[in-house]
Amino acid sequence: MEPSLNEDEWLWGWDPTPGIVSVWAEGTGRAVVWRRIPETGALVREEARFRPWVVLDSVEGLPADVVVRELDGPGELRYFVTAVDGRAIPSGVRERAVLALSPEEQYLVSTGRTYFRDLAFDQLRRMQFDLETTGLTPEDNRIFMIAVREPSGDCSVLEGEEEEVIRRLVECVRAADPDVIENHNLQGFDLPFLEHRARVLGVPLALGRMPGMALRERPSRRKRMRFVTPGRELIDTLDAVMRYDFAARDLPDHGLKSVARHFGLATEDREYIQGDRIFAVYQSDPERVRRYATSDVQEVAGVARMLGGAAFALARMAPRRYERLADAGAATGVIDPLLVRAYLRMGKALPAHREGDGTPHSGAALHLFASGVARRIVKADVASLYPSLMRAYRIGPARDHMGVLLALVDRLVERRLAAKAAARAAAAGSDERFTQEALSAAMKLVVNTAYGYLAAGDGLTRFADVHAANEVTRRGRETLGLMCRELAARGVTLLEADTDGVYFAVPESWTEADERRVVSEVDGLLPPLVHLEFDGRYAAMLSHEPKNYALLTYGGELLLRGVAFRSSRAEPFGEAFLRRAIGRLLAGDIVGVREAYCETLDSLRRRELPTFAVSSRVRLTKGPERYLEAREARRELAYEALLACGRTAWSVGDKVRVYRTQSGAGGVVDEDVADKRDYDVERYARLLRDTFVSRLARAFTAEDFGVVFAEPGQMSLFGKEVGAVRAVLTRVGEFGDQGEFR
Fold first, then answer.
1. pLDDT lower than 70: segments of the chain
2. What fold is seen in the domain 572-724?
3. Domain 121-311, CATH
4. How far apart are CA 611 and CA 675, in angstroms?
5. pLDDT, position 219
6. Domain boundaries in the chain?
7. Residue 679 gets which letter from DSSP?
8. Handedness of CA 262, 268, 270, 274 (dihedral sign)
9. Any idea which architecture 366-561 has in CATH?
10. Which residues of 554-580 are buried (b: 16+ CB within 10 A; e: fewer)?
């Protein structure tokens, strides 16, 4: 690699080869590249040779038939060692190599190539398949059905003897020749199960594009094995869902069905079957399971397209396989490869991973100014505060002597703005808009991770610098303090502020123009490159705790944020109560809040609520043997419920809905059994009062809270009518003159 001063090459690479959809390389120096021609969609296969390489901190023990180039600069990793065949580098040297990438990444870094140049996401041939099995463990269970969705969108269901079903799947993949295979929890369940069953049955599992080569394993950042196969990228949509929710925090849980409903991808007639009941249902009503499985692969295709664009765009930048970028963290998975490629492109030595010096990381700022109910709310967004401060004050890692990280952040921000503008200019629903929006999302992801890259402890990132990270957070606290003081000086009531933005309430007389004017004025006082943007307005807000709040739009839509209001483990009746009660609360209807409480309590006591409504969703973490061994010391509701209904076999990872019966035992919700509604009414009445109702406490004084939520039929101890109660807002903190929060 010859040195280059073109910083765009640090971000995009330098080889313009278009349409790469997969790369398979070997330590021998052989690489196979599959490309899809953008203009025609045709697939071509090319073979190439490259020199396998490692980067070392010394030349000790190197044989004579390797080439050593000493890199410039102060980094410890200064010996770039290559060979015609990687096997020429002794195993002992490879084991101590301080930078040894996979063969595919060696090839991409050394050539400057990346995936998907000039391709749109929809030009990929994507295939989805989903297993239906008799249980979760492949050692004791089998595959009885596989649903398949072709790149064309056509769906089919493979059934019959397990061995034949697996053979037919392999043939389907070969005939469709997809670039990408997708499913939800593909790497956590489907591929491990499929690989084990195929091995037991002696079926060659040649899912790739190189004949005779089965699935291979690779370690992942989550310390579990992932499967790879030559010529195809194996994409688990669960990774995209988790990446999305890390930023948005608005998904009820990460399961496919919940995600599909959340994004409007589920059809009205979608078939639902409890996971542990699928095989039993198949034995009596196979057509129902066929519909269920077909919906699964259709929803996977929709989720992959909706959330997969960011990883697709990242693969245009970072020198890694698409499937690795799909499951990688942005710091170690994206930024580190970009930095490594830039340094080697410039012929510069790299720093070695280094433990911190014990300096603690100061962390981000998060302030709650008031709790309770506020009206006429404005959200002002601080666009990428920490990366903006890094750029404004040129705060980067001390060991990044070339300034690559800041240069990358600069270019990512510039290109993100260009991508956002191009997306707005493109036709709605067009490939161009989708591509530009995905590019913008990918760049935002990397930009916002730049600060986390600095702050990563325990030597997790190559250029980690806690001192630089602490300087960024110090500047962040200063900026947040300035922002909040200036907003307050203009007559607003601060509610909550953090590095993402500020919520505040405005006087009743203000118009939207006044709201926008104030945000613009404060934006003009902030440091260069740091921007405060008007991000939305709402009729009312319930502020419960930091990052836990409810918003009512001017159009009447209720938005709940935070685990206090939304949790996959919460009982549905409680969440339904909260949604109804908070909606009435923010509409100013306190009588309606009381009605919601009394009617929920009455429905419980009359057993009008189905058992499902009082059940909680539990993931089993112990197998039968392990639980029974510890049962005498500690009994747990979920397992006791299973045993009580005669179930002595289950698998770790199973999810069940359990509840407390009126006898004090546990019960399991089974949609195929008549609902006995034998739940413990008073237990769930207490849960309503102590857990769900308590989340409304900050909206009232203690006296008024007692009035609104008094036991039905009980005279108020305070002699006050519910209609006379008003919601309150209580100040809990403010910024002092010196900028400190108190």
1. 1-5, 92-97, 219-224, 247-249, 458, 672, 714-719, 734-742
2. Topoisomerase I; Chain A, domain 4 (1.10.132)
3. 3.30.420.10
4. 7
5. 67
6. 8-116, 121-311, 366-561, 572-724
7. B
8. positive
9. Alpha-Beta Complex (3.90)
10. eeeebebbbebbbeeebbbbbbbbbbb
